Amino acid sequence: CVPAGCQAGVVEVQRSVTAVLGQDVELPCRYRAQEQEQVVQVTWLKRGPGGHSAKLAVLDLRHGEHVQEPYAGRVLRRAPQGALEDSAIVLRN
Q: Residue ranges of the Immunoglobulin V-set domain (predicted)?
């Protein structure tokens, strides 16, 4: 989870998340913003073999959510629409 333009606040994620094949898993991400900061976009990346990253989803305050194939229909925001400080997602199945 990568907040765009992140410079002063703190991104809180779990170093490791355990998932069970075929079940939903929550991937937490919280940004502790400094005063006067606003999160406008969060990009979720999947790190693959060799350290290469592929874009999984983009959460944008103005433009909504954009999920890449093959994750379309499988990525849900845990928090209600709106502020992106809590950008946890649920990856279904």
A: 13-58
Q: What is the DSSP letter of 4?
A: T
What CA–CA distance (Å, rounded) separates 59 from 25? 18
pTM equals 0.79
Q: Which domains does the chain have, with CATH numbers?
A: 10-91 (2.60.40.10)
Backbone angles phi, psi at 14, to 5 degrees: -85, 135
Question: What pLDDT, in 10s, does the model give residues 5-61?
Answer: 545 678 888 888 999 999 999 999 998 888 888 889 999 998 888 888 989 999 998
Let me know: does 31 contact 12? Beta carbons within 8 Å. yes
Output phi, psi for 74, to 5 deg.
Answer: -115, -10
